[in-house]
Amino acid sequence: MKGMEITFPGVKALDKVDFSLRKGEVHALLGENGAGKSTLIKVLTGVHRMDAGTMLLEGKPIRPANTLEAQRLGISTVYQEVNLCPNLTVAENIFIGRQPMRRGQIDWKTINRRAHELMLKMGMDIDVTLPLATYSIAIQQMASIARAVDINAKILILDEPTSSLDENEVKNLFAVMRELKAQGLGIIFITHFLDQVYEISDRLTVLRNGRLVGEYLARDISKLELVTSMIGKDINEIYNLQKATQKEGAPVVLKAEGIGISGKVEDISLHVKQGELVGFAGLLGSGRTETAEMLFGVVSTQKGDVSMHDKALALKAPLDAIRSKMAFCPEDRKRDGIIGDLSIRENIALAIQATRGFMSPLPKAEQQELADRYIKLLSIATPDAEKKVGELSGGNQQKVILARWMATNPDLLILDEPTRGIDVGAKAEIQRLMLEMCEEGRGIIFISSEMDEIIRCSNRIIVMRDLKKAAEVDGSCTQADILAIIAGEGAEEEAV
Amino acid sequence: MKKSVMQSAFLRSKLFWAIVAQLLILLVGFILRPDFLSIQLRTLSDGTTVLYGTPIDILNRASEITIIAMGMTLVIALGGTDISVGALVAVSGAIALKFLRWDVLVYNTPGDYTVQPFILVLLLPLLACTLMGLFNGMLIGKLKLQPIIATLILMVGGRGIAQIVTNGKQFTTQYSPFKFIGNGSILGIPLPIIITLLVILLVSLFVRRTSYGMFVESVGINPSASRVSGLRSDTIIIIAYVLTGFLSGISGLIYSSRISSNDSNNAGLGYEMDAILAVVIGGTSMTGGKFSLFGTVIGSLIIRTITTLVLYFGIVSEAIMAFKALIIAVVIVLQSEPVRNAIAKRRDRKRLLMGGEARV
Question: Taking a C-beta distance cutoff of 8 angstroms, is the pair B131, B243 a contact?
Fold first, then answer.
């Protein structure tokens, strides 16, 4: 593909990008969120059309108008979320739409036999007559690949195929990829995991902000160079973060005593001081999110008390928490965070407006000023404040939600997985913002599954286990200490 | 460049196609009968001059639906629906006529007086409809019932209430201040048109000058995120249904004034569907979210223009409904996403070929 260009309202999604894939290679496509990887794939598979540029397949110009046409040309895609029919059998899924017939009837025998052979080639000896949903994601993915390959694919696109696989499954997938490569297929591999890039790919192409950064041989580029080229900055500069300085005798902002909901989270007590960042560590489902939701009034507590600045709160709804100067960035950004069809300006003004009530609207000029200020402060990538939030990339959406809460000037922020699913650059920016807010004297509760970022940022860490608070440790502890507590090995309640 | 992006977005919008449809329907009327679009001043027997002509008639007769559809727009933008509005129109008329003719035993004689202060005759029906709107709103906002089920209660029950209020009777009145609402005119403009314009203006101001409109869209798009951001969706929902109830009351007064009577069985019949259709043609999605009051006005005018066109050309009355449905089907197909995109794409390509400035 040469000089591809595609424009979306207001943003150039791809700008003169060249991309070439050879037979029998695994080519990794890399870039941060919003770099243009998905757009490029969508052009290849006929979802979007190019505004300019040409696309050649085996020397012949092509211009697929839809995914079906692309498939016929030999371009198949396996998405992150498997797009097969879970209630049909594995065999049916592989042959759907092109069932072999015998005397006017579907030839089930052949279907099942060939499906079994195909899966066997993938190293999966399974019963193909069972519904797809009975198997793990890894096997479903294999079925999806089997289908693509059997349709006589020349190009196979794997979009984040490994994100929900465990180590062994990844190994198996890579084995299959090597096999297909040897058969002469060209494979485009998209992933966030850099180690996997080095393990499997021959060449890689890096995109940034819709532009081509470069094409490299995987063995020629170091990991550090690669990350630097992806984010356009030096990684060491990004991770040069300083924990918030603790002042002696800083007053307590938030205090919770024995809060809980029977059957869910039990008897949690904690406090956050001014200018302090308290990390919440623990496994998924250990009660971190539930605790945050109780503190913010998203769910109502049955037991215990919450107070802000020594004033007891009656939390019936999030609005009560907001009025007492709390803020909450929820874990599920799409469901609980953004209002997709509203503009950036409206999304940022929403929480302030909620506390004022709708009868005293914030003047539009003030909203505009607010939005412009935060777009600049948080470097949100957008042409203007009127763009719909739903059209932004994940990291930028997260920044808009942060802006919404920063605009309310909170004394306490609860951030639930604020860096999940966003790229390295935006992640570091959000961490730096958190620490800046601490320096301004705000208290922060930071929930994350990534142990190293918790340790990097927190002054104090609360470890959750099995819906209870397992321990509270100082921010200078190591990852091993926390893991030991999570695993439940001997760590006793430890007061700080 | 940015301008052409916006132009293209507008071409793809439902509102644009609603306007096109409206113009097309008017054009068809004009081609078939050139006097379809003419407006004249006419002097009535009592010496007053009024504007006269099909366009005025369309505006006038669209009033009842347009007024209700203003509230319905907000209800639908919240992801809800209100199918009780037609019944509320009947309730409003029943209460008004009951209070005008409270003393009457011989109800079938036309009376040219009122036995209650006239202001009460106007306020009580509005109050009743507002309370019924509150009832809908509480069921949906507080008890979280499904809107279509919650409003089904009053859709059925409303006409029953109207029957009870009037004892199942039909009253008529010749009291001129009451008749003036639906039949009078100020400066030659029929009063229903003036009332409708006022309602449009006030609702628009309420929605866009306060943050109510933004809250409605926010809750309509993502209720869960709205709650976390501090919005009280129950209050927002209740207000929308209360407003719709109140507006149905106004619509009922206009309707019963036009026929100088109440009619528990037929007043407002089918209004809920026309109002919902007006909102949808105007570009607001039934799944909630962004809404356009202006679009709803266009939608309501389209529905009325179709009805007028059908009546105007003397199509046999049995065929009217089917004919109306046919035109509406065409309008909605024109508006459907694949058709809109296809037309917009075609235009873009044409301009590209001609070397125009479209770079979208």
Answer: no
Query: Rounded to an integer, what distance in angstroms lies between the CA atom of residue B48 and that of residue B308?
Result: 25
| Number of domains observed in the structure of chain B | 1
Yes or no, beta carbons of B210 and A359 under 8 Å apart? yes
| Nearest CB neighbour to B222, from listed A339, A358, A404 | A339
pLDDT tens per residue, range A143-169: 888 888 887 778 899 888 876 677 778
H or E segment and range at residue B268: none
B60: pLDDT strictly greater than 60: yes
What one-character-per-residue DSSP string does B78-108 give? TT---TTHHHHHHHHHHHHHHHHTTT-SSTT
Residue at B49 is within a domain: no
Q: Rounded to a whole number, what is the distance in Å from the CA of B228 to chain A's nearest CA?
A: 6
In a domain, B234, yes or no: yes
| Rounded-to-integer distance, Cα A45 and Cα A77, Å | 8
Q: What is the CATH number of the domain that holds B163?
A: 1.10.3470
pLDDT digits (tens, 9 = 90+) for B129-177: 999 999 999 999 999 999 999 999 999 999 999 999 988 888 888 888 9
- For residue B167, being part of any structural domain is answered with yes
Chain B nearest CA to A495, separation (Å): 32
Considering CB atoms only, which of A338, A355, A356 is closest to B225?
A338
Six-digit token string for B331: 């309008």
Return d(Cα B109, Cα B173) in angstroms, integer: 8
Phi, psi (5° rounding) for residue A283? -75, 165
Which residues on chain A are in Cβ contact (under 8 Å) with B240?
none
pLDDT band at B358 (very low <50, low <70, confident <90, very high): very low
* Tokens found for residue B134: 């509150």
ipTM: 0.84
How long is chain B? 360
**B5 belongs to a structural domain:** no
Q: Considering only CA atoms, which of B132, A102, A416 is closest in space to residue A110?
A: A102
B226·A339 Cβ contact <8 A: yes
List the domain range (segments joined by +) for residue B299. 54-314
Residues in chain A within 8 Å Cβ distance of B232:
317, 319
Spatial distance between the Cα atoms of A117 and A121, rounded to a whole number of angstroms: 6
Is A359 in Cβ contact with B221 (below 8 Å)? no
For A169, the token pair is: 């499954």
